[in-house]
Amino acid sequence: MYLKEKQADGAAQSTIYSHRSRLGHFTEWFQSETDYTHLSDLDGFDLKLFKLERFGEEDDGFGDYSRLTVKTQLDTLRRFMHFNAEIGAVPFSLPHRIKSPSKGDAGQRDNEIEDTRARKIAKHLDRYRYASFDHVLFHLLWYLMLRVGTARSIDVDNVHLDERYIELHHHPGQDTPLKKKGKSERKVAISETTASIIEDYIDTNRNDVEDEYGRNPLFTSEDGRASLNMMRNRVYALSRPCTVGECPHDRDPEECDAAQARNVAYKCPTSEATHAVRRGSITWHLREDTDKEIISERADVSVRVLDENYNNLSEREKMELRRDELPEGL
């Protein structure tokens, strides 16, 4: 009914298609993830849950989505709910429970760590912090394109060093859920180098502890599984320019709070969050002409999302990638 009214109001077919596509994700979630029969059964908590399941936490950069994409999709959902409120299908208060990112931030693309910077960080870890917590974490985020929550979920017995792969499992009841639940479960190949680093980390630097469920986490604190905040702070600290070189902000590291304390490393203007490592890796793989299906399966992100949110290639790079797909001689 909503789309028919937009069509009757003279909306272009492209607009109708866009709204149908955006609302399709909500419709699928409503039908598969709730026990409700009518939209009127929804409340504000349900809509917040949908937003979290669809896009992730705002503090974590909305996962694989740009702020503009999140704003556009939630704005459409809010219009849809306004329409339903006007015809009495949902309470008038419900549309106002849908919060979009602020307009001032929505057009800003979340940062990505470029491959040259990633190589400097990896080289620094190879030389000065071999087989450390940070060394393993960076390898998994960059080379495997994992989300930080996925990396946190890994147990020691999920790592198969001889066969060189890692199993990823969804355990929502044990505080290690995966982004897309069971659909995110998979096996991810690791290189010989990564396998050696993980093996040496387990043998020498990993705390020999269990989590509260009796599992042996790969990433540990002193008394159990490392928290997400702990892992995020590690990446903020690793990505500070002064970690591998000079400060670009003319600050004295001895007097800079962000340089001195890991838990405030995020205050450095050019430190990066965990999603910037993953995004940078995905963009680098696209530039290296890795097949999108391979990236999709390895990084657990759809080809459509790759096209919508990892489109940072220059026009010339896009042209060359298209050229490679053409039959020889064309």
From TrEMBL:
<keyword id="KW-0229">DNA integration</keyword>
<dbReference type="InterPro" id="IPR011010">
    <property type="entry name" value="DNA_brk_join_enz"/>
</dbReference>
<keyword id="KW-0238">DNA-binding</keyword>
<keyword id="KW-0233">DNA recombination</keyword>
<dbReference type="InterPro" id="IPR002104">
    <property type="entry name" value="Integrase_catalytic"/>
</dbReference>
<feature type="domain" description="Tyr recombinase">
    <location>
        <begin position="120"/>
        <end position="222"/>
    </location>
</feature>
<dbReference type="InterPro" id="IPR010998">
    <property type="entry name" value="Integrase_recombinase_N"/>
</dbReference>
<dbReference type="InterPro" id="IPR050090">
    <property type="entry name" value="Tyrosine_recombinase_XerCD"/>
</dbReference>
<protein>
    <submittedName>
        <fullName>Site-specific integrase</fullName>
    </submittedName>
</protein>
<dbReference type="InterPro" id="IPR013762">
    <property type="entry name" value="Integrase-like_cat_sf"/>
</dbReference>
<dbReference type="GO" id="GO:0015074">
    <property type="term" value="P:DNA integration"/>
</dbReference>
<dbReference type="GO" id="GO:0003677">
    <property type="term" value="F:DNA binding"/>
</dbReference>
<dbReference type="GO" id="GO:0006310">
    <property type="term" value="P:DNA recombination"/>
</dbReference>
<dbReference type="Pfam" id="PF00589">
    <property type="entry name" value="Phage_integrase"/>
</dbReference>
